[in-house]
Amino acid sequence: MPFAVFVLRRLGRGLLTIWFAVTVTFLLLRLLPGDPALAVANPNMTAGMRATLLAQYGLDQPLIVQYAKYLWQLVHGNLGVSFAQSVPVTDALMSRLPWTLLLTGAALVVTVVLGIPLGVLAASRRGGFLDRLVQMGSVVGQSLFVPSVGVLLLYVFGLVLRIFPIGGAFTDGTYGLAWYLSVLTHLVLPCASLVLIQIGSYVLTLRATLIDALGEDYCTLAKANGLSPRRVLWKHALRNALLPTTTLIGLQLGFLVGGAVLTETVYAYPGIGRAIYEAVTQLDFPVLQGAFVLLAAAVVVANMITDIAYGLLDPRVKTA
Amino acid sequence: MRSIPRRIAIGATALAAVIAVTACAPSAPSSQSSSVASSGGSASATPGATGVTINIATTTDVVNYNPLVGNSRTDYWVTNLMYPHLLTISSDGSKQASLATKWGYTNPTTGYFDIRNDMTWSDGVKLTAKDVAYTINAVIKDKPGGTLYGQLTNVKSATATSDTHVEITLVKPDSTVVNEVGFWGNIVPEHVFSKAGNVAKFANDKNWVSVGPYVLTNVVKGQSYTLDAVKSYPMVAGGVPKAAKIVYRVYPDVNTEILALQKGDVDMIANAIPPAQVKNLQNSDGIKLAEIPGLGYAHMTYNMKKPPLDKLAVRQALAYSVDYNAIRSVVLQGQGVSTGSSPIMPVLKTYYDASLKEYPYDPTQTRRFLTDAGYKADGSGNFPLNFRLIYSLQDAVTSQWVNLVKDGAAKAGITITLQGLERNTYLAKTAAGDFDIYAGNFAIMDDPATNMALTYLKDGAINYSYVDDPALSALIEQSRVAPDQQTALKLLQKAAKIVHDNVYDNVMYTQNLYIAYRSTISGLVVKPSELLSVVDPASLAVITKTS
Amino acid sequence: MSTPQAPTSRPVETKATLPTVPMTGSVMHGLEPVATELPGAARATWQAIRREPLGIIGLAVMTLLVVVALAAPLLAEYPSGYGELVLAPPSGSHLFGTDSLGRDVLAEVIWGSQQSMLVAFAASFIAIAIGTALAMIGAYFPRTDGPIGVLVDLTLSLPVLPLMILVAALVGPSTVTIICVVAAFSWPEVARVVRSQALAVVRLPYVDAARLMTTSPFWIITRHIIPAVTPVIVVSVVLTASRAVLSAAGLSFLGLGDPNTWSWGRILYEAQQSGAMSSAWWLTLFPSVAILLLVLSATLLSISYNDARNPRSRRR
Fold first, then answer.
1. What's the CA gap between A75 and C224, in Å, rounded?
2. ipTM of this model?
3. Which CATH architecture has domain C46-80+93-315?
4. C-alpha C19 chain-centroid distance
5. Does the reported pTM lie above 0.90?
6. How far is Cα C68 from Cα C72, in angstroms, rounded to an integer?
7. For chain C, what are the domain ranges?
8. C176 touches chain A (CB under 8 A)
9. For the segment A164-219, what is each residue's pLDDT rounded down to a tens digit?
10. How far is C293 from chain B (nearest CA, A)?
11. Which residues of B, range 175-234, sit inside 8 Å of A by Cβ?
């Protein structure tokens, strides 16, 4: 199949995904108990004032009208205006999204960079002490509960050892190199706990696929041809074993972007996950809708990149 | 041959992915550093007298910078430093001069404020009575969702008759309106807000103009709000704020907040410390606590629209089954004050009626009430009574004491089903009257006449017991048009007695709050309630820090 | 396999699904003994598990947790009311210390195991049922495969935790809500994993043979295909269950848990609310360790099962 058709198809599916996310969120929000005017929780708000406020938000119109208006806005790239903050949703979210991307992106890179050697190590020492150690470590990491780990790391490295700052994404009032350094030091702990939690699945997947690949005919053949076991492992087996790992990266992105809520909360990191959680408590419909559009789009783009990478890595996809 | 282009392609894809991520990520940094640079410049232009930066932790972001709309705690704290109130409040709930120097009524339907003449907005424009009149009229016209609009129900309009005198024209006589508008309303600059058109939709999210001690200069959403000292603030001795900068830092998790305080990343925590942590922090090195008198109360209401809660005996039975002392000593760690089961709390010294006594915790009496009312307990001592109690899960203290309420009732043979709800569901169910028992609290119940009108009149916005007692309503209505405080006081005390004796409301305690700060901080001024506490302009303008 | 198929049949953490390896090779080879359910193969698997020390540890821990959950009423009094000793560190009278209302944390952890394990098993059961059913339909009726694949992809693309928060807020906090919410967002992964395995099985000669014997797809699916993919399902159960425990704890932690039932998430949530997480370490440590043990034992079991099931990867 021509590459262009493949890309177009993925694009179409991506748009469908975004529409799906938009519609699901739109309906879910309207089904939620309470309304944005009640969420203001003003003890002297009368029924009349509540109605006035709802009209200001445009929520007095029929559902279908609201939906059509929203889609129309969306097509024009307009995400609407936040109820609670009175600013355009784009402004409200765009100040937060970069930090989430930085955090989850950094965590992903570190995970892959550390995960591949660990997986290879475990697979090459299969059944040995190191293999068991890596497996145990991976499983323990996966089973950790984010806030507990967060408070522990902050206590040890923030309060007791004073190596890393507590909370925030950078130091106010720094610029230039000092600013970049402060971004880095603020990133370490939240990034470390995300890596700790997600690295397990990468290592275990890689280990399992490597072990299988090593038993394949082509690896046996390579060994028979006199190639060193190291070369067989790194050159031949790893190439194939990387495919499921690549897929896993794509699969976990949705989890990664959304799943950062707890991490961002504990580390007071100014990411989008927290913005979403706050918008839920304020019933700020436009911000929530906008956030879900953005997240869905991010996942779609990421999935497309992994799919293309997959196509490039997998000989069968390429030649078929 | 095949592997080389493939490698290039893989490399290119990886590169594209990296660019896609980094293209988004550093965009914030560049814009951030430029705004940091600009604020650095303005800071050196207006240094506070001591040149220190005070870092204050809070759990929530500023939601809305427009004080006429915003109503979260951090909104109040930050905007109060820029937009003044006409009146402030003392520890006994009485109103004191702030921007206004004199206030009152010229006749039953006309109120007035005389304001200071020495205040100037940070852009050099003088603050006059026109700003006050504009604020009130704009709120009446555009109906923003903030607290002030609710206080203006009986106000027709405001007029500035001179640079320092504002007249308020009322729709009907109301002796509470001047005090309440004066206390709740933030005055905004007409020359800035009028340009925005509709004040209900104005975000006020940049180029702030302040008449308070500090002006917001830099915002990092989700992280920090930096306010710089202004050149002149006549409302404090010395005429200038002492600190150079106030920085509000956001820590959504109270545990992280406490760690940041212990480390010294912040100098103070603005939100009240959870009761169980007070002792721990008191024993912590370098940390002090300030006690903030509460001005609100926590209560339970029994929905009188749901039989058998319309029967006095049943409400009394419930009221006698609660171990109030245990709630105050265990859940609140002794930081709660009994109100004598009266809606007029002891903190409102002028109004408080010491003759009203708290409902005793007496399960035997509860059983007697029920047996006398004709209820029969089954073999295991349980009455055929089952009530559903709603509360908000986001309210940590209430979430704890409702369990004690349930256990107490169970001892007396009454079943209470706890229904902990997510905040918005709780608000929706409350508004719809979908509960048997409601548990909740109010932060500031400063004016008994206003609050009893909201709580016990037939259509009161927070009449959660659905009480409609003509005798009670008459007393409240009369108190609102009473010519002097002494008359109003007598009427309100009578009303409170009716509420108490009929168990129309079960007011349980006023919580005194604790604010934690580092011992390097000095000069704190304590104001009542969590809203004012030690972060009121009167306190932050004079606060200092030693290194 | 044609081109567009490859990207959609993505594997998850399990090694049972390997589109990388040619379909006719190892996967079928690995499946054959289980597909026919030879008693010998099952015994061989069991013996292999027994030789895996990690598997034995996992099994022991899991058994212990189940016993604790079932025997909770015998082990500790239901934690309620209040105690005089607030936030007391672990001691002889309170082995795990007390919480901010003076209740015994050990009792809370013991009683909490009931709800946490109920959520784990119920959520994974529902997710497995839905996921397997859809995967079977997709695999057996090629026409439905496209739409089901799209649905799975769409659901996987949604940001999970924010959506869970929304749904939990919508339905109200209760154990049933948590089970449903976790299940609702776990089934697509199951469907995806099971489907790719089932696709391979459907093409096997013995399924063709079965088609000659009966016209009932239900019979073929339940008698021939499901047994063949059981290993994958077992692994999925374990993974979904452990994810459910963590998700449920996360929801409780955000204040969307069931406030009337003790769960490990609720202990952590109350510790967080009372600001005690750093000063009262016992409040966070013990429920966290309980969560860790449950997830750990489940995962260890699945790894060993997986290793043991595959004759080629068994240690010789």
1. 49
2. 0.89
3. Orthogonal Bundle (1.10)
4. 23
5. no
6. 6
7. 46-80+93-315
8. no
9. 999 999 998 888 899 999 999 999 999 999 999 888 888 888 887 788 777 777 77
10. 25
11. 200-205, 218, 220-224, 226
